[in-house]
């Protein structure tokens, strides 16, 4: 199931390529990162045993590798959150849509505000 979550996340990467090529504007950077946050949050909840599917059995205890993978997954989700507000997320720059597709970029607003103060 974990590989299914990963495949779903990377499927959006392959959907974003024609979106960028044909300028559809469906998967801009915020939408893409938000989808990844939801997918990896669900994956972390699945690893903890909080999310179950019909073929899953009950987990009597949480093993150390499973707990480690869920902690790593939630750490990745926390890494993605600043990307919603304009953080560059350089480790994922090859997978994410370009920074120019970002509608709400705090770093650009802060730098333009600083330039306005400096000019005055």
Name the features:
single chain; 120 residues; mainly alpha; 4 helices
Walk me through what this model shows.
The protein is an all-alpha fold. It has one domain (2-119). The protein has four helices and no strands. It has helices at residues 2-21, 29-48, 64-80, 106-119. Helix 1 runs antiparallel to helix 2 and helix 2 (29-48) runs antiparallel to helix 3 (64-80). It is elongated and about 50 Å long.
Give average pLDDT, whole number: 86
Can you tell me the residue ranges where pLDDT is under 50 for at least 5 consecutive residues? none
Q: What string gives the helices and strands in order? A: HHHH
**From the helix content, strand content and strand pairing, which structural class follows?**
mainly alpha
How many helices? The count is: 4
Shape estimate: elongated
Major beta-sheet overview: none
Number of domains: 1
Helix content: 55-70%
Strand content: under 5%
Rg value:
18 Å
Terminus-to-terminus distance: 57 Å
Assembly of the depicted chains: single chain
Overall strand count: 0
Give the SSE layout:
Layout: H1 2-21, H2 29-48, H3 64-80, H4 106-119
Helix pairs in contact: 1-2, 2-3
In brief, what are we looking at here?
The protein is mostly helical. The chain has four helices and no strands.
